[in-house]
Protein: IclR family transcriptional regulator
Organism: Streptomyces spongiae
Amino acid sequence: MKTPHHESVLSRAARILEAFSQDEPALTVSEIARRSGLHVATASRLVAELVAHGFLSRDDDRQVRIGVRLWELVTRASPTLSLRDTAMPFMEGVHDVVGHHVQLGVLNGDDVLFLERLSAPGAVINYTRVAGRLPLHASSSGLVLLAHGPVSLRERILAGPLTTYTPHTPATPAQLRAILADVRQQGYAYCPGYVHEEALGIAAPVRGGDGTVLAALAVIVPNDASAQAVVPVVRTAARGISRALGST
Amino acid sequence: MKTPHHESVLSRAARILEAFSQDEPALTVSEIARRSGLHVATASRLVAELVAHGFLSRDDDRQVRIGVRLWELVTRASPTLSLRDTAMPFMEGVHDVVGHHVQLGVLNGDDVLFLERLSAPGAVINYTRVAGRLPLHASSSGLVLLAHGPVSLRERILAGPLTTYTPHTPATPAQLRAILADVRQQGYAYCPGYVHEEALGIAAPVRGGDGTVLAALAVIVPNDASAQAVVPVVRTAARGISRALGST
């Protein structure tokens, strides 16, 4: 079905796109070649083709970036845009009241992928970024998605390894099973210091019209006793988004 | 430099991505073939390859969409993400006070391309979308970008044609020249009914560290006398974003 040659061009194009990151959005051709494991001549030719199609762009100083045209094509028809657009006013409301960080995450592979994040200046430390990822077992959003996700996924994650970030990160299958049962029973995840000692995540499920959990809404606040008061805010907003998506 | 065959694969991949839009984010292979002008067999083979690389995804019901993996790759290294992230708290502040729509646009080709939009429920009509476009001469954001853009661009747009949306849209080169002079002199664009009779756009320039205009911040409010009070809010926020970007 596929000719090796076709596969090869798209496969190499994919490797080139993967060379860019939020920390390094601009690279030279030789950096791209090194990161993508391609010969410089091959990388150079492919970058030129990708630039010609607007997938990449090249500055006056030879730095290559993701092209604005590609961003536009992908964003305007993004599979996540309508979810994000529906959630946005609710997220803004939570952000007005709670401050710090409000974020929306979806299950993608064995991770939570964050579609949106609103942050206040001076907010508590938070490793999340738009289009960033965190492991399912360690983050409040991930625990909500895992608790309501497929059994096969849960068994795979429970089989480990469970990376720990602090002494509070769930580290054993037994701990994780207990937490997931709590998340399902209480209707939210409450995670003091799981990813960073100073931060506490609270997440609640966002459901679609058929009741399926589509996303997790989370706030990240300082890890102290005042966080408990935020729980009803997060749960209410997550229910609001679910209602707006047609859930009853 | 390019082999026709390589060019052809990426060129056809680009045409396939271009087939998707915000109104039609999910298409069947035959719809994709029709929109991209490819034979169904060719489209089918390329879609399969793009699905294999995560550029597209296919549902159980055979609907094809932009892949979440591609969204992630493009978004995490987006050339516009740092601008958008810097602007976001200022945009939220304006949105809290003004309501309706707050949006951030950049110059792209002969259009304004919108990177972000915050909208309130029940806000005035607005054709802008995230990753959507408007012509430069008709929108408040576009007029700010055009007023501060390259002379060659200005001359090209002034040479027309100037599409009109209402009787208030600038329709002649003389009208447009006068408006652009006002925008430069006043420091903002004020556009009652240019795109829709009921809406009024107000936009101000966002400048980078070297003083270059990088973007336009705009609000869209109802087309009435109360709009004038919004001007200082928009100008202040645009200055704030500029300061945060290093402008003095």
